[in-house]
Specification:
Elements: H1 2-17, E1 19-31, E2 39-42, E3 44-55, E4 60-78, E5 81-101, E6 106-123, E7 129-147, E8 152-165, E9 168-182
Antiparallel strand pairs: 1-3, 1-9, 2-4, 3-4, 4-5, 5-6, 6-7, 7-8, 8-9
Length: about 180
C-alpha cells in the first residue's frame, strides 16, 4: 500500500510539472556538397523551423518539428551554355531532449531523434520538380534557452541531419535562433 501511495505521488508531481511548449527559429542552413570544376553551388542559405514539445520534468522532453532546410542552387557553364538546377529540402523530426540548468535563467539541451527528410530537385529549363527523394535519418543537436519570463524564452541551437542528393547522402547543418513559449 505504501509503495502504491509513493508511485501515485510521483505521478501527480510529474503530471503537475508537465509542460507543453512551442516555438519557431530562423537561421542559416549549410549543405556539405562540394562543387568543383565549372560548377558553382550556393550551399548556405536561410531556412526556418517550427517545433512543439512536451516536458515531463525539468530534464526530459519529447519534441516534434518541421524544418524548411532551404535550397541548394547549382549552376554550371560549358562551351558558353549555362545550366542551373536547385534542390529544396524539408524535414519532419521527432527527438528526445535532455536539459541541464547552467544558471537561474539559462538551460542547455542536447537532442537526438529521427527525421524524415524530403528533397525535390528542379531544373532551370524544366517546369516543376524533376527529381526527389525521401530519407529516414538520425537528427541531433545542441542548444541553449534563456528565460525572459516563466513562459517566454529565447532559443539558439545547432542541428545536423542527412539529405538524399543525386543518389548520395549529404549533411545539412543549421544554426538557428528564435523564441519558445511554454504553456
Amino acid at each position: 500500500m505504501m509503495l502504491a501511495t509513493m508511485l501515485a505521488s510521483a505521478l501527480v508531481v510529474n503530471t503537475a510539472s508537465a509542460q507543453v511548449y512551442a516555438g519557431a527559429t530562423i537561421g542559416k542552413f549549410h549543405w556539405t556538397e562540394n562543387c568543383q570544376g565549372g560548377v558553382r553551388c550556393s550551399n548556405a542559405n536561410s531556412g526556418y523551423k517550427v517545433f512543439a514539445g512536451y516536458t515531463t520534468d525539468s530534464v526530459v522532453s519529447v519534441e516534434a518539428s518541421y524544418a524548411d532546410l532551404g535550397k541548394m542552387a547549382v549552376s554550371a557553364s560549358e562551351n558558353g551554355a549555362v545550366g542551373s538546377s536547385g534542390v529544396k529540402a524539408r524535414s519532419m523530426d521527432i527527438a528526445g531532449v535532455l536539459r541541464g540548468r547552467l544558471g537561474n535563467e539559462l538551460m542547455a539541451f542536447a537532442k537526438l531523434g529521427v527525421a524524415t527528410v524530403r528533397t525535390s530537385a528542379s531544373s532551370g529549363s524544366a517546369n516543376g520538380p524533376v527529381a526527389g527523394g525521401s530519407l529516414l535519418t538520425p537528427v541531433g543537436g545542441i542548444g541553449v534557452t534563456v528565460n525572459f519570463t516563466r513562459e517566454l524564452s529565447a532559443r539558439a541551437e545547432l542541428e545536423t541531419r542527412k539529405v538524399k542528393l543525386a543518389g548520395s547522402k549529404e549533411t545539412v547543418t543549421n544554426f538557428s535562433v528564435g523564441m519558445q513559449y511554454s504553456f
